C-alpha cells in the first residue's frame, strides 16, 4: 500500500473516533461475549484475538471494512495477556513479559497511548549475579556500562559501545525489512495485465530501497552483517569480548525462546534483538507495561473497537470454509456449528494449526502442506509466574533496598555466568532431559508497576530454558515432575539470593505442552515456529508464501508464523492488513 493510501486510512479512522460501536470484548481479563449477528456477511474475519490479529482487524476496520475477531479463549490477547487470581491478589503476564519490539508506526497510527498503553522503561536493564560475589549491571547509561564491565575487563569496557553501535547500524536495515511485506515472485493469475505490471514495479521498488539501505552500510558493514546472520552467537561474542560473564549475559539474547544453543549457526542474528526494539524513541530499551502485557492487547483492542470491529470471545473456529471448485474462502465454522460467512479470513493461529487443522483436507498443494508439517515448531521454554512476599536479596549486593534497588529493575540472569553453562543446559535438553541448572531470565515488574501485586509483595517472571516438549523419562503431566522442576529453579535462585524459595506464596507454571494446549502454540513454540535462518523473510512460513497470502484465495496469515516472526511487535498483523487491502483494491 502506498504511503498516501496509508495516510488516508489513518486520517479516515480519526474522523470515526467518536462513533459508538457495540463491542463484545473490551477487557483482556473478562470481556463479555455475545453471539455474532445471525446471517451477517463480513468483509473479513480474523481467527484469534492475539495482538497481531487485533492489529490486523483494527487496520482493516479503519479502512472501512466490516471485521469480526473470533477468539477461542474467554479473554483476548493470545500470548500478550494479563491474568488475575491464578494466585489471589496478583496479576501475571502469563506468557510474554517485556516490550520493546512493538512497531513505533503501529503505536502512533493506532494511538495506543490514548487507548491506555503506558510503558515503564527499565534502568538498569540487566543484572547478572555471580557466585564469586561479583555482579554485572548493564543499561542505557554508557558511563554505568563502562564502569561495570571494567570490573571484569578493561578491554571489553572499551569494546562494548562499538559493539552496540555496530548492531544499531544493522537495525536501520532491519527496520525497513520488518515493516514491509516480502516481495514474492509468484504469478498472480487473477490480476489484470496492468496490475501484474504494477506488482512487478512494486517489487522492484522494494529491492531498490533495500539495495539503497545496503549501500549506505558500506561493503565491510554488510560483510559483518552477513557474518552476524550466519554465525553462532558464541563466535560473534568471542570475536568482540574476553569476559565470560559479559559474553554469557549477551548470549542469552541469542537463545531466548529457541531450542538452540550458543554454538548453533545463525543464533547470532537474534543478538540484534538486544538493540532492535525501542521505548520512547530510545534504541535497545525494554520496558514493562503497566497492568501487564495484557494492556498491550487491551489498547489495540480499544483501537479496533473504536473503528467498528466486533470482538467475540469463547468463539473457537473448527474449520475454514473453502469452495470445492473455486478453492476460495467462504467463511469459517465455529465449534458449536455456527457458520460465519466472509470472503476473507486472516489467521492469527500458527501455520500448523491453520493449514493442518483448520483448512479442509485435499485443498492445499501436497508440497506446501508437507513444508508446513515439517517446519520446526520445537520449544524448550517454560514460563513460571511467581508470587512472593518479599524481594529477593542477592548475596553479591551489599546494600539492600526493600523497595527495590538497581539489581531488581531489569532482567536478572541466573545460571548464565559463562557460555559453557548455557551450552551444557542446551545439550541436556537436546537429549530429552530438562536442564540440571536451567538458564533463567528473571524479571520483577512489580518494582515499577504497582498495579499487579499487593503492597510489599511482588510478581516475578521466570523465563526458563531448557525444558524439552517431550521428556526422555517422565511426563510434564505428572504433578511430581512439574513440582520437582519448579523447585529446581527456585533452588538455583537460592544460590544467588538465599531464602528465595521461602518467599514463594504461589506460582503458575507453563511448560511447552501447556503453552500448546492453553494458547494454541504448536509445540509450545512462542514464536509460532523457529526463527532459524531457514525460517525467516522469504522462507517464513515456507518458501514461496512469505507475503501473508496462501494457496487458498482469500486466506491470509497474520500471526508470528508469518514474516517477520515472533515477539510482541505487531508487524505481521499490520503488514498482513495492508496486503489484504491492496488485494481488495486490485480485485
UniProtKB/TrEMBL annotation:
GO molecular function, one term: flavin adenine dinucleotide binding
SUPFAM superfamilies: FAD/NAD(P)-binding domain
Location of region: Disordered: 13-38
Superkingdom per UniProt: Eukaryota
GO cellular component: mitochondrial matrix
Biased composition (Basic residues): 13-23
Biased composition (Polar residues): 25-35
Family: Belongs to the carotenoid/retinoid oxidoreductase family.
The name this protein goes by in its record: Amine oxidase domain-containing protein
Organism field: Leersia perrieri
Amino acid at each position: 500500500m502506498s504511503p498516501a493510501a496509508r495516510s488516508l486510512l489513518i486520517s479516515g479512522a480519526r474522523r470515526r473516533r467518536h462513533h459508538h460501536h457495540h463491542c463484545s470484548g473490551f477487557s483482556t481479563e473478562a470481556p463479555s461475549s455475545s453471539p455474532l449477528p445471525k446471517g451477517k456477511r463480513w468483509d473479513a474475519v480474523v481467527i484469534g484475538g492475539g495482538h497481531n490479529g487485533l492489529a490486523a482487524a483494527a487496520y482493516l476496520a479503519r479502512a472501512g471494512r466490516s471485521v469480526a475477531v473470533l477468539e477461542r479463549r474467554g479473554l483476548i490477547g493470545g500470548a500478550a495477556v494479563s491474568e488475575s487470581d491464578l494466585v489471589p491478589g496478583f496479576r501475571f503476564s502469563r506468557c510474554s513479559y517485556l516490550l520493546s519490539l512493538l512497531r513505533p508506526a503501529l503505536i502512533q497510527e493506532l494511538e495506543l497511548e490514548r487507548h491506555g498503553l503506558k510503558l515503564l522503561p527499565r534502568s538498569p536493564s540487566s543484572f547478572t549475579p555471580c557466585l564469586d560475589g561479583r555482579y554485572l549491571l548493564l543499561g542505557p547509561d554508557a558511563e554505568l556500562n563502562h564502569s561495570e564491565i571494567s570490573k571484569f575487563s578493561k578491554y571489553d569496557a572499551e569494546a562494548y559501545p562499538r559493539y552496540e553501535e555496530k548492531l544499531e547500524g544493522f537495525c536501520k536495515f532491519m527496520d525497513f525489512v520488518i515493516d514491509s511485506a516480502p516481495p514474492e515472485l509468484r504469478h498472480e493469475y487473477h490480476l489484470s495485465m496492468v496490475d501484474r505490471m504494477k506488482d512487478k514495479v512494486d517489487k522492484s521498488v522494494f529491492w531498490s530501497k533495500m539495495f539503497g539501505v545496503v549501500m549506505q552500510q558500506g561493503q565491510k558493514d554488510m560483510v559483518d552483517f552477513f557474518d552476524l546472520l550466519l554465525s553462532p552467537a558464541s563466535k560473534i561474542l568471542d570475536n568482540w569480548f574476553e569476559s565470560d560473564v559479559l559474553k554469557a549475559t549477551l548470549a542469552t539474547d541469542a537463545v531466548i525462546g529457541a531450542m538452540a544453543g550458543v554454538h548453533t549457526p545463525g543464533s547470532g542474528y537474534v543478538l540484534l534483538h538486544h538493540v532492535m526494539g525501542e521505548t520512547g524513541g530510545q534504541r535497545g530499551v525494554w520496558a514493562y507495561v503497566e497492568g501487564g502485557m495484557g494492556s498491550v492487547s487491551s489498547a489495540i483492542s480499544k483501537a479496533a473497537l473504536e473503528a467498528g470491529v466486533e470482538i467475540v470471545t469463547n468463539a473457537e473456529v473448527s474449520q475454514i470454509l473453502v469452495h470445492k471448485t473455486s478453492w476460495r474462502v467462504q467463511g469459517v465454522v465455529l465449534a458449536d456449528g455456527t457458520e460465519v460467512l466472509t470472503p476473507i479470513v486472516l489467521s492469527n493461529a500458527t501455520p500448523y494449526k491453520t493449514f493442518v487443522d483448520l483448512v479442509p483436507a485435499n485443498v492445499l498443494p501436497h508440497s506446501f502442506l508437507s513444508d508446513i508439517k515439517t517446519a520446526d515448531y520445537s520449544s524448550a521454554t517454560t514460563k513460571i509466574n511467581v508470587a512472593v512476599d518479599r524481594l529477593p536479596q542477592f548475596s553479591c549486593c551489599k546494600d539492600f533496598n526493600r523497595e527495590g534497588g538497581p539489581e531488581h529493575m531489569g532482567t536478572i540472569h541466573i545460571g548464565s555466568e559463562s557460555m559453557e553453562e548455557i551450552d551444557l543446559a542446551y545439550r541436556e535438553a537436546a537429549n530429552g532431559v530438562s536442564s540440571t541448572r536451567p538458564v533463567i531470565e528473571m524479571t520483577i515488574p512489580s518494582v515499577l508497576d504497582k498495579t499487579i501485586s499487593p503492597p510489599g509483595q511482588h510478581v516475578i517472571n521466570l523465563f526458563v530454558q531448557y525444558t524439552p516438549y517431550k521428556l526422555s523419562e517422565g511426563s510434564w503431566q505428572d504433578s511430581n515432575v512439574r513440582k520437582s522442576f519448579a523447585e529446581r529453579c527456585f533452588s538455583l535462585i537460592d544460590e544467588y539470593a538465599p531464602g528465595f524459595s521461602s518467599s514463594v506464596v504461589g506460582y503458575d507454571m507453563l511448560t511447552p505442552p501447556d503453552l500448546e494446549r492453553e494458547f494454541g502454540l504448536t509445540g509450545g513454540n512462542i514464536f509460532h515456529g523457529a526463527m532459524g535462518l531457514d525460517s525467516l523473510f522469504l522462507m517464513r512460513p515456507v518458501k514461496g508464501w512469505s507475503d501473508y497470502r496462501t494457496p487458498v484465495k482469500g486466506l491470509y496469515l497474520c500471526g508470528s508464523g508469518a514474516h517477520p516472526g515472533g515477539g510482541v511487535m505487531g508487524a505481521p498483523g499490520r503488514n498482513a492488513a495492508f496486503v489484504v487491502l491492496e488485494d481488495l483494491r486490485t480485485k
